[in-house]
Amino acid sequence: MTNARIAAAREVARGKGGGARARPAESARTLAIGDPQAPFGSFLEILDLHGALGDDGWLVPEVSLISMGDHFDWGAPQDRAAAAEDGELLLRWLAAHDPEQVTILIGNHDLARVGELWDVSDDGFAAAQRLADQAYRQGDDLEAAFKRAWPRFFSAELVARDLSTFRTSQRTLVEELLRAGRFRAAHAHGGALFVHAGVTRHELLQLGLEERASAEQIAAALDAALAAGASALGSGPLALGALHQPGDGAHEGRGMFYHRPTLGEGDDAGRLGGERPWRRFHPDQLPRGLTQVVGHVRDDKCRAELRGWCAPTLHHQVARDGPVRHLVVEGGRGRYAHGVPPSSTSDAAVVIFVDNGMGKIGALADYQLLDAGTRLVARRAR
User: How far apart are CA 70 and CA 37, in angstroms?
Assistant: First the structure.
């Protein structure tokens, strides 16, 4: 990819790239791209490798894009300034496109800007992060000191790592996009539900929907819930009842935007169940007959939490970033494997994972996108 394309895309993000390019009524391809917690240039290069980025810095007209949420917080402490700027640039670049061409799903890191961090200043966050960095490195004694100084935060790790690149300008941007309806809680395409971290039967119950509700019905209900929450922006942390609760001094954030499936035998076993809304769920809670495409969870976590259901081919391999992956649950049993799922019955619950470690992967050419129309791994242009 040429530096000229990166420079052009930066101009688009800054509102200096001219009007959005005309595009056909229906795109030839719709691509789903996993959590873009990576340099802006890396994100653009992956699109370029798939023939989706034009010389003018815009998406090419024949491609539509679904960004799966979590546009902030990546990198080592020395990367924070660059990561903060790039996260905001990326989100502005996505939002510069026509809503019919680019769908922007909201993730837990995006929600944190108007949740845990809804009234935190830049100076306040910098002060909290200085102490959090020390506590995260040095352990329990300083953790207690951090909690005394900053009782609003659940842990030092949250400030040092999970929300590491916060700036108030990001919160302003997230608020703008929520008010404009550009952030979506979910999106339906080709009969599949695209959502940051997946829904269970519990969320459908909260929405007043039957288990066999269509992807379109679920997406509409979730978007309505997000819009209702966004209408109260500025009066307190954004919460969505039983669907999403931001973190505070007593709890980490909870709900569907944090969801990870677990069989109760891995690192997250202690988080399974308990007080709702959950952060972790057993896969038997997935709605039958529904295919969901999610981000949020990389291969290492999936293997740790679903090890009893991992395909035999994964047992002697190390976890790796790059591939699209899937989980199929049917008849009380499930199978987690790399690649797109095989055909299944109407009673199967299917999850396709597309958070493929964009900020961790060694070679960007190995980062796979999903073709949302065919539900196959998207072809590369070169």
Answer: 7
- The Cα 67–Cα 102 span in angstroms is 8
Domains parsed from the chain with CATH numbers: 3-16+26-117+163-373 (3.60.21), 118-162 (no CATH)
Cβ-count burial 92-117 (b if 16+ within 10 Å, e if not): bbbbbbeeebbbbbbbbbbbbbbbbb
Q: Are 49 and 380 within 8 A, CB to CB?
A: yes
Are the C-beta atoms of 173 and 268 separated by less than 8 Å?
no
pLDDT digits (tens, 9 = 90+) for 343-375: 877 899 999 999 999 999 989 999 999 999 999
How far is the C-alpha of 148 from the C-alpha of 139, rounded, in Å? 15
What's the pTM? 0.95
33: phi then psi, degrees, rounded to nearest 5: -120, 130
Structure tokens that stand for 246 in this block: 């931001």
CA distances from 359 to 28, 38, 46, 59, 266 (A): 28, 4, 12, 21, 24
Residue with tokens 């030839």: 28
pLDDT tens-digit series, residues 25-59 = 566 899 999 999 999 999 999 999 999 999 999 99
- Name the amino acid, one letter, at 105: L
Distance from C-alpha of 123 to C-alpha of 236, rounded to nearest angstrom: 20
Q: Residue 25: what pLDDT?
A: 57
